Amino acid sequence: MSVIAWPNVKVLAKLKKGQTAEAKVLQQVPAAADGTFTVRLDPAAVPAGYATDDGQVDLELVMSDGIRQATWSTSVVNQRASVSAAARLNRGAGWALRGAAPGNQLVKFDLAAGTVDAGKVTVDKPTAARSSVKHLSAAKVSASRFSPLVRTSAVTPMETCVVTADKTYYGLTERFAHVYAWSGGKGIVDFNTGSDHTLGIAISSGNGWSQSGTGTISTNSGATTTGVVDANALNKVNYRDYYNSCTPYTYRKPISFNALIPGSSFTYAPHVNYSYCTTYSAGSSVWKQSGTNITFSTGVSLGVANVSAQSGWNTETKVSWNMASKTKVCGSTSSGWVSSPQMDARKG
Amino acid sequence: MGRTPVPGRLAAALLVTAFLTFTGCTPSSDQPKVRWVGDEAGTSFGVAVPVADPATPMTVLVGGLCRMGTGVPTVTGVTFAQTDGIEVAGFATGTRDASQGRAGAEPKALAEAGYDPKSTAVPTVCGPEGGKQVTDLAVQVRATGTRRVRASGVVVSFAGGSVKIPMTLILCVGVTEGGHCAGE
Predict the structure, then answer these.
(1) Is the peptide bond before A262 cis (omega within 30 degrees of 0)?
(2) Which residues of B touch A79 (CB under 8 A)?
(3) What is the pLDDT of residues B1-54, one digit of tens each?
């Protein structure tokens, strides 16, 4: 297993077509007897310029058995590298996965089957015994849906890889949430400075495309869309192709937001009634500032492939309802709307 | 890495040290523990409610609780971690079928809102994504200010410790029917 740090997304976005940047091989990790690998990354081992200002590092894991090879990309964030002292206080130490439920990520490479499965995120509480680790399906990525490329001849990455920028694709639609509401209780989507979304990366060796991991982009501006009723909440995002000399694949990676929650572009989503409801009177408001949002497995259409989109309802991305009339707010699980990944508001 | 043959099925655990801030649960013994059902979703949320008159009692559904361990714990106290004009006047738990709806906030005392003020037990066992039964925690609050008042962080105490529910409550005092109490 090789762990490659890509140049950060700002560096990649600034490259002109045909220009190059270096990706660094940070680690080469041998397999244990049972075939498992554990990547432990020392923040000091990440060269300057590879992390963003808020500590995000984009990693690519390259797995090879000497004959075949597969890759998986993910973004992690150094929790102590936030630009804000207040935010630093609220963070723990070490690395966190960006854009997913907190915890460790288990990635299974099946080279024989040609699949990578990153479908489980394990949550490990400091107060809990190791044996009580829980498994959440926070990042539902099925092996059958995503079949990353498996080469038939292995390539071993070297110390430095050359990444070459190619074509940019502007204004692709990212669906990241359903907002189910009604005329007496309309939704508001807030997308504040610092919001980040985790979007799929597609790769190709020339014979078709498939998703191979995710990358996280964030914004330094904000937007609010009000009066939302039964809609797919959207952003417009920019993707760009990069060729990595080491693997050697072409990667279509998310690089930036193009337009934040452009309400006029929201598309209709037929209302879904969930079962576990709480009723609020006219004049009330409710909001949800964090929690597990669903992953849209086909949230971004790249033309060559559909890839996933996921946002948490965090302090930067929020959904609210203002109730002009008595309204039921309902969740998709028996824990109710606060704890459910899906929710709706309807006449109470 | 590289040329050493390894089995076809491989797994890589990308370990990111997770120091989760799971709402301050502080268990101290083998006693049963109380948890808020939203813990694992990493959720925080808020409710803003109009109140016509500060003298009006207001019962607010804070959320679902469940228990871990053997025995049925009881809630011994409920306070706000931060408050600017809202007091807790009482609390109660109530268990219901999850599919039965519940009012989120009502201008009534606990008993009028359907809660037994003597009920403090949390009999529902914690499970993945909730179960058929839900134990609600309701608080009766009163505004001590005369305009828009706010409290956040509901600290629920039980014999083995406490758990904090990351809820923000806003009461818009003096807002009558037809008015609106905005969130934040």
Answers:
(1) no
(2) 19
(3) 333 333 445 454 444 332 222 233 344 457 899 999 877 656 789 999 999 888
pLDDT, tens only, A288-301: 876 555 667 668 88
Residue appearing with tokens 């598309």 = A267
pTM: 0.76
Closest by CA to A63, choosing from B56, B124, B11, is: B11
Q: Return the closest-CA partner of residue A24 out of A53, A42, A38, A45.
A: A45
The structure tokens 């940047």 sit at A21
Residue type at A87 in one-letter notation: A
Q: Scanning every residue of chain B, which has its alpha carbon at the shortest distance from the alpha carbon of A43? A: B16
B150/chain A closest Cα distance in angstroms: 14
**Cα B25 to Cα A128, B163, B171, distances in angstroms:** 11, 5, 27
- Tell me which residue has tokens 């204004």: A171
C-alpha to C-alpha distance for A195 and A260, rounded to whole angstroms: 10
Closest CB from B99, B102, B129 relative to A275: B99
Contacts of B127 (CB under 8 A, 6+ apart): B66
A284: nearest CB among B44, B178, B181: B181
Chain B residues with beta carbon closer than 8 angstroms to that of A91: 19
